[in-house]
Amino acid sequence: MLVLKLVYSSNLDFVGEIQELKTILKKKDIHIGIVESVELDNHIVKILCDDNSYNQRVKEIINLYMSNVLYKVVLEQYRLKEMLVYLTENYFFLKQEEIIEVEEEIMKVLLGDDILKVDYVIYCMNRINNITEKIKACLEENDEINVNGFIRFRMKELRSDIEEIIDKVIEGYMVEKEYKEFIKLLKYFVDIQESKIDLINIVIDNEGQYFIFDKDEKNIFKEFMKELIEYKIDTEAKIEDIIISGLITNAPKKLIIHGKKNCTNKEFMETIESVFENKVVFCNGCILCIEKQVKL
Question: InterPro entries per the record (predicted)?
Answer without folding.
Answer: Spore_YtxC
